[in-house]
């Protein structure tokens, strides 16, 4: 249930409602807006009728049921969109963000060169895999702790906040020491032990959608994080499995729009995994931003043909710079609809700006 406080409700009236929610057997989650507060009563086993009786409490405007099973993720419990701060970056704000970097950290030279290049091109955050979940046990699994130290050095050199994947509950503390944001990969979206631990880690979390997960399941996975005490969650659509064989996955752009409609959390798109083809990354990126994505996560490598993982879906440094340049025009074209801006100057051709969607 959601208890909507009146605009003029006092702090004492709010505290009384919080105490009554606890007495009714529920957990109170308070959202304070510019004009009023909302108290979400979540949990099971409590008395719903007792909650409904709070309509008579001083300072309460209304008590309404939450329509979705994801209570804290729902826009019913938070009317304002969540902004997640990661280092110096803000995801879900007025500007679309771009997270860029290699699938795997392979060497000091590789990650430092990539970090400098994506920073110069306008990227907001640096991505790089230290621990890699691979389908085959014989594929490159990442450099582990050594990669974390290299990512930390890249952050110190460029100032870019670092995003890297966590695969095990045992690695959370170590990765938290080196990274600014922890990524839950598609294979671990429903690893509930991992989600429960990440809810208490104190770091922002990037939650990728599983390849066969529905939007409802994706949002319920995010609910684990919020219910456990971590409100700094960013959703990432990275493509789902369909009957299509020409692309690695099917980038579900409708899911981006739907997740933004159902939830207050920021939503970004992964056109690299979503297509698996470097020639489709640019058009998929434009489409994702046009439909309302709060940002993109893109794989970039100095020499994709030598990449130890995901070379076929990685842009080289020049291709990424061109993409960032090209994205400035379409994001301006849709800014009036999404209230987003892109901090890159448009490419100029023969003295005139090029705007092509």
Query: Percent of residues in helical segments?
Result: 25-40%
Per DSSP, the total helix count is: 12
Please report the total strand number as a whole number: 16
Structural Rg: 21 Å
- Structural class, from helix and strand content? alpha/beta
Shape: elongated
Q: Main sheet: which strands, in order across?
A: 7-8-9-10-11-12-13-14
The largest sheet is:
8 strands, parallel, barrel
Question: How does this model look, in words?
Answer:
There is one protein chain. It is elongated, with a radius of gyration of 21 Å. The protein has helices at 11-23, 48-52, 108-121, 145-158, 172-178, 192-198, 215-227, 253-262, 271-275, 278-290, 317-333, 335-338, and strands spanning 2-5, 27-32, 37-42, 60-64, 84-86, 89-91, 97-101, 125-127, 162-165, 181-184, 205-208, 233-237, 267-269, 295-299, 348-349, 352-353. Helix 3 (108-121) packs parallel to helix 11 and helix 10 runs parallel beside helix 11. With 357 residues, it is of the alpha/beta class. Strands 7-8-9-10-11-12-13-14 form an 8-stranded parallel barrel, surrounded by 6 helices.
Short description:
With 357 residues, this protein is of the alpha/beta class. Mean pLDDT is 88; it is low at 332-337 and 340-357.
Kindly list the characteristics that best describe this protein.
8-stranded parallel beta barrel, 4-stranded antiparallel sheet, 12 helices, alpha/beta, 357 residues, elongated, disordered C terminus
SSE map:
Blueprint: E1 2-5, H1 11-23, E2 27-32, E3 37-42, H2 48-52, E4 60-64, E5 84-86, E6 89-91, E7 97-101, H3 108-121, E8 125-127, H4 145-158, E9 162-165, H5 172-178, E10 181-184, H6 192-198, E11 205-208, H7 215-227, E12 233-237, H8 253-262, E13 267-269, H9 271-275, H10 278-290, E14 295-299, H11 317-333, H12 335-338, E15 348-349, E16 352-353
Parallel strand pairs: 7-8, 7-14, 8-9, 9-10, 10-11, 11-12, 12-13, 13-14
Antiparallel strand pairs: 1-3, 1-4, 2-3, 5-6, 15-16
């Amino acid at each position: 249930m959601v208890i909507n406080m009146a605009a003029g409700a006092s702090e004492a009236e709010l505290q009384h409602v919080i105490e009554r929610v606890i007495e009714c057997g529920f957990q109170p989650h308070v959202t304070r807006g510019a004009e009023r507060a909302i108290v979400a009563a979540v949990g099971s086993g409590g008395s719903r009728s007792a909650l409904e009786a709070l309509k008579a409490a001083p300072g309460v405007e209304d008590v309404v049921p939450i329509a979705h099973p994801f209570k804290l993720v729902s826009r019913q419990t938070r009317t304002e969109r969540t902004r997640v701060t990661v280092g110096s970056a803000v995801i879900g704000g007025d500007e679309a963000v771009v997270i860029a970097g290699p699938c795997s950290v392979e060497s000091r030279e590789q990650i430092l060169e990539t970090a400098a290049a994506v920073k110069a091109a306008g990227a907001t955050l640096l991505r790089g895999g230290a621990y890699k979940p691979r389908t085959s046990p014989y594929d490159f699994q990442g450099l582990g702790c050594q990669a974390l130290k290299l990512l930390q050095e890249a952050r110190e050199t460029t100032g870019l906040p670092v995003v890297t994947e966590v695969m095990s509950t045992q690695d959370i503390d170590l990765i938290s020491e080196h990274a600014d944001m922890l990524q839950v990969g598609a294979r671990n979206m429903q690893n509930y032990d991992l989600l429960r631990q990440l809810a208490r880690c104190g770091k922002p979390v990037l939650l990728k959608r599983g390849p066969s997960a529905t939007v409802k399941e994706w949002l319920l996975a995010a609910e684990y994080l919020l219910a456990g005490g971590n409100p700094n969650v960013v959703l990432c659509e990275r493509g789902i499995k369909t009957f299509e064989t020409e692309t690695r996955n099917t980038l579900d752009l409708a899911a981006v729009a739907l997740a933004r409609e159902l939830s207050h959390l920021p939503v970004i798109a992964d056109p690299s995994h979503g297509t698996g083809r470097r020639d489709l990354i640019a058009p998929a990126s434009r489409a994702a931003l046009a439909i309302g994505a709060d940002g993109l996560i893109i794989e970039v490598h100095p020499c994709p043909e030598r990449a130890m993982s995901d070379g076929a879906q990685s842009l080289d440094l020049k291709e990424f710079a061109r993409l960032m340049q090209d994205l400035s025009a379409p994001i301006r074209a849709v800014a009036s609809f999404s209230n987003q801006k892109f901090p890159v100057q448009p490419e100029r051709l023969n003295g005139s700006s090029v705007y092509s969607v």
